[in-house]
Every structure is written in C-alpha cells, then in structure tokens.
Write a structure and sequence with these properties.
mainly beta, 47-stranded mixed sheet, 47 strands, elongated, disordered C terminus
C-alpha cells in the first residue's frame, strides 16, 4: 500500500520534470534564447561563437548542451577556427541562478579540436582565452574580450573537462605536422583564482606511423591570463616511449635506433608582484625550468635488446623571464656509467636561435663510447673492453653548434680482449680547436708483444719487429663552422708492421668489411694521408703502401697470393699497383695496375712466366662452389651474407678494368701455348678478350672471348689457327700419337653456358673450317676407295684436306670434306662421337670430263668402327680397279 502511495507521489513529479525539460529545450530554440546564450559564450571566449542548436539535459543534472560548437579565431592569428567540438555541455550554478545571476559551472567538451597559433611576436592565441581570475585578483596586464565582441557580462568557467580532444599547432599561417591526440583531463579553478591542470594526450606527427609513443601528461597549477599566467608550477611527463618513435616524431626517421625513453620537465614562476619586490624589476616573471631525459636499452635495429646495452641520462636547468628573447642555462649534464659531461651558458633567439655553451670539468669514458659501438655494430665480441677517458674543455656557440675553442686530452687507452692477439695500446690523445675544426696531435697505436713471441728463440731478447703506427688528423666543419655527418676530415697514418695479421684480426673483431673477405700475414709499410670534403664522391688518398713478404688469401681463392715486394702508390690523379715477383695462380707476375681518379676504371699491363689451366682449377675450384668470376665480381667472398647480395650486385655492376695480359707459357693439357698476348676488358659482369695471340705447335693461334656472367653464365669464343704441326698435335694426345702428319689451319666458333665443367661441356655448340697440307693419316688404307692410283702413291697421304665441322650434343659432324691425292679426290661426310666411334661416308669425286677407269659410276664406302680399328663397308657396287703396287708411306 505504501509503495503505491509513493509511486502516486513520485510519478507526477517525474512527469513535471520531464515536461519542464522538454519545455526548456523548446525555449532554448527560440531566437531570443539563442542570442542570449551565444552572447554569454562569446563574452567568455572573447571570440565569435557558432552553435548548431541548444538543448537541456535533466538526466545529467540539469545541464545546458550546445551541439556542433565552433569558436572563431582572432583575426590576428588567422582565419581558421579556434575551437571546434561535437558538443559543449555546461552545468548551471543553481544558487546563482535562483538569485538572478546566470553563471556556468562545469564545462565539458566532447571530442574538441583546438588550434594553438603563435604569431611573429611570440604571442599565443590562447593567452586571452582562459577566463580571468576574480576581479580582486585582476592585474593591469589583462586584455579582456576583443573589440567587436558582445557587451554581455563575461561568465566564468570554473571547471573544464575534456574528452577525446585534439590540439593542433601553427606558426602564423604555417601548419605544424605535430599534434596531440586523445586529449583528456580536467582544468579547474580553485578559490584563489589559480587553475589546476591535469591533462593527458598522445603526441603524433603527420605522415609518420607510431607504435609505442607513450603518454604526455601535464599537471600543476597556473594563474589566469589577467595575472600573465603567474604564478605557475607545472610538471610535464612523457613516459614509456619507444626511442624510435620519439625520433620519428622529431626527425621523421628513427635512424635505426631502438631503446626506451622517459622525459620529465618542471616549470615554476612566482607572481609578478612578488618578483618585482624581490629583484626590483617589473614585467614578466622569471621562469625556472628543469628537466630530465632518461634513455636505456639503446641499440641498433638489427640487434636484439640486451642487458648490456648502454643507458644515457640528460638533465638541464634554465631560467627565462617572460617576454625576453634569451635564457640562462645553468646546467646541462650528460651522464653515463663512465662519463660526466657538464656544460652551462645561455641561449638567445632574438635573431635566430643561438646557444652559447661552455663544456668544462667533463670526462668522457671510452668504455661508454665502445658500448655504443657494440650496441650498433653486429658481431663485436662481448669480451672486448676499451679502458681510458678523455677530458673535455670546449666552448660551443651557434646553431647547429660550432666549436669556438677547446681541448681534448687523454693519458692513453687500452683495448683488450680474448679475441685479440694482444692488447692494443693507444698513446696520449691531445686535440685542440683550430680554425673551427678539431685537430688531433700525433697518437701512436701499437700491439703489445704477446708472451709467445716476446722473446726470440735463440738468445731470449725481446722481439723488436715493428708493429705500430702513428696517426694524426682533424675533423673539420662544413661552411660557417657547422658540423654534420659524415664530417669533413683529414687523416694521416705512418708506420710499419711485420704482423699485418694482427691488424686484420683487429679489423675483424671491429667488424670492418675488409677483414671479412680475406686473411693475410706478413709485413706492410704504410705512408698515407687522406682527406674528405662534402660533395666529393670518395676520400682522396696520397702516399704509398709497400709489402714485405705479404701473403693474402681472399675468400674467393683456394690458395694465397704472395707479394714479396710490391707497392701501391696513391697520387692525386691515379692509383698505381706495381707488382714485383708476385706469386698467384701458380705463376710469377710482374707489371702494373693503374686507375685514373676520381672515377676512372682500372688499367693493367701484367705478365706471367707460366700459366697452367690445371693450376688455375686448383686455385679457383671446386666445382661445387661458385665460379671464380661469379665470386670475385660479387665482392663478398664465398659464404657472404645473402642479405648483402643486392649491395654486392650493385658494386659488381660498377667494375671497370681493361688492359694487357701476357704469359710466356700457357698450359691447357694436353696442349701448351707460348707467348700468350691478349687484351682483356671487364665491365660489370661482362668479360671480353680481344686480339688474343699465342704460339701453338709451331704455328699461331688468335682468338676472342665474350663472357657474360649472369645467373646463367654464357661464353662465346672465336679462334683461328694457322700452320699447326699435326704430328706435334698427335704427340700431345696419346690416342692420336703417330696417326697424323701435316700442317693445318682453320677457324672455330664456340658457344656454351651454365655453371660447372659438366654443364659447360654438355651445352657446347661449335662449328668451323679445317684445312691441312701434305697430310698423312697413318694406318688408314684408302686403296679400296681410290680409283686408278699410281703404284708409287701412298693411299694415306693427301696434298690437301679441307672441310667444315660442327659439334653439338656430344658429336663431331664433318661435311663437305674434300681430300686431294695424287691419285684422285675424295669427299667425306659423317660424324664421330665422344666414344671415338666412326660413321663416315667416303666416295671418290668423279670428274664429268674424265670418268673413273673401269667403272661407270663412283663407289660409296662407309667407314665405321673406331679410330683405333676402322672398318670399311661398301655401300654401292665397286668396279675392280687396275692392279697397282703400294710402296709404303712417304
């Protein structure tokens, strides 16, 4: 019963409230109500306001709702909107309303978009937006609503709530790519008129994809615009940020850096009145700003994160008076486990940004520097340690920073580790600023003599073989003293080592590409100086390298190269390699290789005492590995990382070399060429041999070769031979020994493709011409074929033999072969396969004017069997020839 009475009482009340809400909503749609509310909003914002429609929500506690709100921009800051929101919900202060005053309570913005604009004088459009403090706290600096605004009395917002907002930034008319997304939080005014801030947002940059950007949060208190935002105490944090994403926001690229970042900033300023009492100066307040950036787990993108990855802290303290265009930097401190770099100074931006900083009482730990090197360089052993420190005292100014004066000094350093043959000792390091650059005094680097070789085997004295280099150089700025990467530099090194293998091991553990593709042992003398300047395609080197019984084993060779005494000379115009008794490919080499600078190809003129194809195979095989040409043009060596194949291909495409190659002997078993002389050209993956000439079996041969070293290599060979002794040819081939006599000439054209000897042999296609004089085929009796010969004629001897031949699918085919004898002429056609089987048809050539005696037609014979045991078979009737006597071979 009581429940029914309660419902009877509450239902009319609810109906009355809903009816009142609906009625109020309809009232707010009237022209007068809209104008009144818009005037109140314009007075509060100090700008023109547009609202699609107003409503009233009783369910939210009696709140006024403005749908599709747009606040126009002050014309001094542009023509875009200042603030836009899907809806603005305002709570009304009912006690003030009941007393006849219209006041706003809490203001809530749903998905607002705010444009913050900074003009050329450094003023922000938001400075006049925050509602002023209470009249009793107002200062002369308050600007108030702009002219042209409504004369309505301003209505203060005491509590502003933001959900899902966005803040854009502009410098004049230029839009910034930076923005803050998902802005949420609260701005509330306390009883003293100060605004309490607690806002969070996600930073972004247009066109950049971000993954772990963290959250920016601003907390603290600040006075209203009437007090020029003074006093203020603010704290800004940026937590759990990917270092890569932070760099993408700032520079649009992460530069391959990975790690984590935390940033914290604190800003504080007293009230203008208290400051004027303290320092006697009126006007803007003195802001004190301090911050800290913590970076940890710094490493390169290609490496996994490790606990040993370096960490870095940067902190600073600065002070700045509002309205001034310079700030005092009390401290910038960079800290690492072994390093402490401190600088102080000032920054001025009256005419461009110009810092002026002094680094003093600072020490840079070389172990920290090496930890960064290991974190960004794959393959550096963990056991390496670089001990030592460098003191720094320098002055920087300008932007980008320029060195004005300063020194770097160190008592020395030592690189040690089980991966090294001995500790690497680095002498005193001294550098000073000269002409805007950092100039390094001579510094010696050397390997300490290990115990195993510190004493000679004969008398126990210390080993005095040289193993050190003296280095000096300078890092130079670009124009106007600006440094950039890669920097300009000059560098010189002079010294000698009898154990070049030690330095290659050092290069290998430091992952220098040179050491990955070769090993070496022996001595080297170095006298080099180099310079690099912006715009140059490559550094310029001058000086010499001299070898002392140096042995080099590149990855693409099976055996080492030996350079007893050779020299590489670097001049301004060319590089020259002089070979003196160099040993390679089973031969001793002399000659020179030169290259015109800066971008010319290599030109060579070299000679060898003796080349042997079998020896070349020992150097360049086995067949299961890539061919020598494909390996050397890949420039990566056998077993190189497949991920680098694209870089190797582009490097191979730039290869350019040409020149002259000579050899006193060239053995291609079972043959031997003498006095080989050829012009060779390398262009990318193509090798061309022109005008190759050589002595061959008392005759001469000449040839050309075109090799295209693609994924399916192809070769095209053309050659001519002249006055070759067939008897010597037979002696060179055991199966043909004592079977041929005579002098031969001709030409051959051959093409083949594939990788490996078997593929090349199976794909050979060849054809050519052959001509012999006074030739004898020993053991071949042609008396059955020859018609009407003289008794004194040797049936195996020919005054000439001429014809065509071709080779394909493992068979030699002869055609149009004409054999001239004193007793007549024969014609032969057929083939010989690789098993030496014969299938040849031979017939006498019958003259139309002189028919063969005793027969009305020419007989045709088939020559079968093998070269060792030929068999004759008549294929047509044969007339009996006249009786004759065979008198033997002549």
């Amino acid at each position: 019963m009581r429940k029914k009475i309660w419902l009877r009482g509450i239902l009319p009340l609810v109906g009355a409230v809903l009816a009142g809400s609906a009625g109020l909503t309809r009232f707010l749609q009237t022209s007068g109500a809209r104008q009144y509310l818009i005037a109140k909003l314009e007075a509060s914002f100090g700008r023109q306001v547009e609202v699609s429609r107003f409503g009233f929500s009783v369910l939210d506690g009696g709140r006024l709702v403005a749908h599709s709100l747009t606040v126009s921009e002050d014309s001094r800051f542009g023509n875009e909107y200042f603030l836009r929101a899907d809806s603005l919900t305002v709570g009304l202060r009912w006690p003030a309303l009941l007393s006849g005053r219209f006041e706003f309570g809490t203001l809530s913005l749903s998905e607002p978009s705010l444009n913050l604009v900074r003009d050329s004088r450094g003023r922000w459009n938001i400075e006049d937006w925050l509602p002023p403090s209470s009249p009793s706290l107002s200062q002369a600096g308050f600007v108030g609503p702009r002219e042209g605004s409504s004369n309505a009395t301003p209505v203060r917002f005491v509590n502003i709530v933001v959900e899902g907002g966005r803040i854009n930034f502009k410098q004049g008319e230029e839009k910034s790519p930076f923005a803050l997304l998902d802005v949420s939080g609260r701005v509330a005014q306390d009883g003293s008129g100060r605004w309490q801030l607690d806002l969070a947002a996600l930073p972004m940059r247009a066109g950049v994809n971000l993954q772990e950007i963290g959250t920016v949060r601003l907390r603290g208190a600040i006075a209203g615009t009437s007090a020029r935002l003074q006093p203020a105490d603010l704290n800004l944090t940026w937590r759990q940020v990917s270092l890569a994403d932070a760099l993408r926001i700032v520079r649009q690229s992460d530069f391959g850096v990975r790690g984590e970042l935390d940033v914290e900033l604190n800003a504080h300023v007293n009230s203008a009145a208290s400051l004027s009492r303290e320092d006697g100066k009126a006007g803007g307040g003195q802001w004190k700003v301090a911050g800290m950036a913590r970076m940890r787990g710094i490493h390169g993108w290609q490496l996994p994160q490790r606990s040993e990855d370096p960490a870095l802290n940067i902190s600073f303290e600065a002070s700045w008076r509002l309205g001034e265009r310079h700030a005092q930097v009390g401290k910038i401190l960079v800290e690492m486990p072994q390093s402490h770099i401190h600088c102080a100074g000032e920054m001025d931006w009256a005419e461009g940004f110009r810092p002026d900083l002094h680094i003093q009482l600072s020490s840079l730990g070389l172990r920290d520097i090496f930890s960064f090197y290991r974190a960004f360089r794959p393959g550096v052993p963990e056991n390496l340690d670089l001990a030592g420190a460098v003191g720094i005292d320098a002055t920087l100014s300008g932007w980008p920073p320029r060195l004005q004066e300063g020194v770097l000094a160190s008592t020395g350093a030592r690189l040690s580790g089980a991966s090294l043959p001995a500790d690497l000792q680095i002498g005193e390091i001294n550098a000073s600023v000269a002409q805007g650059g950092l100039e390094f005094a001579p510094t010696e680097i050397s390997f300490a003599a290990p115990a195993a070789r510190s004493r000679t085997e004969t008398n126990g004295e210390e080993d005095s073989t040289p193993n050190s280099f003296m280095m000096r150089g300078a890092i130079l700025p670009y124009s106007f003293g600006v440094y950039s990467w890669p920097p300009n530099w000059n560098f010189s090194v002079e010294g000698e080592t009898a154990q070049v293998q030690d330095w290659l091991i050092l290069a290998k553990v430091l992952t220098h590409p040179l050491a990955q593709s070769l090993t070496a042992a022996g001595g080297l003398v170095v006298k080099l100086s180099g310079t690099r300047r912006v715009g140059d395609p490559s550094p310029t080197w001058l000086g010499i390298l001299e070898t002392r019984n140096l042995t080099v084993n590149p990855a693409f060779l099976n055996r080492p190269l030996v350079f007893p005494k050779s020299q590489v000379e670097f001049t301004q115009s060319q590089r020259t390699i002089t070979l003196t008794a160099a040993e390679a490919f089973g031969a001793t080499w002399h000659g020179a290789v030169t290259r015109k600078m800066p971008a010319g190809g290599w030109v060579f003129d070299v000679s060898a005492n003796r080349l042997d194809a079998a020896e070349l195979d020992r150097w360049l095989g086995p067949r299961a590995r890539p061919s020598f040409l494909s390996r050397i043009t890949s420039l990566g060596g056998f077993g190189a990382n497949p991920a680098d194949s694209q870089d190797r291909d582009s490097t191979a495409a730039r290869i350019s070399a040409r020149g002259r190659l000579r050899a006193a002997e060239f053995d291609v078993a079972p043959f031997q060429l003498g006095q080989l002389d050829a012009d060779v050209e390398l262009a990318g993956r193509r090798i061309t041999v022109q005008r190759a000439r050589a002595d061959f079996l008392e005759g001469r041969v000449s040839a050309t070769l075109d090799a295209k070293l693609s994924s399916d290599p192809s070769y095209h060979f053309k050659g001519q031979f002249d006055r070759v002794n067939l008897a010597l040819l037979g002696r060179a081939v055991p199966s043909l020994r004592d079977r041929f006599i005579g002098i031969a000439s001709g030409d051959i054209s051959l093409t083949t493709h594939g990788v490996g000897r078997e593929n090349l042999a199976h794909s050979i296609v060849a054809d050519g011409m052959f001509e012999a004089r006074n030739a004898v085929i020993v053991g071949l009796d042609l008396s059955l074929v020859t018609k009407g010969s003289l008794q004194s004629v040797n049936p195996a001897k020919f005054t000439s033999a001429k014809g065509k031949f071709s080779f394909a699918n493992g068979e030699i085919e002869i055609s149009d072969f004409v054999l001239d004898q004193a007793g007549g002429r024969l014609q032969a056609d057929g083939r010989i396969d690789l098993s030496r089987s014969l299938d040849i048809r031979i017939r006498p050539v019958v003259s139309s004017n002189k028919p063969a005696p005793g027969s009305s037609m020419a007989a045709i014979f088939s020559l079968g069997g093998t070269l060792d045991s030929p068999k004759w078979t008549p294929l047509s009737p044969v007339a009996d020839p006249p009786a004759r006597t065979y008198v033997g071979r002549k």
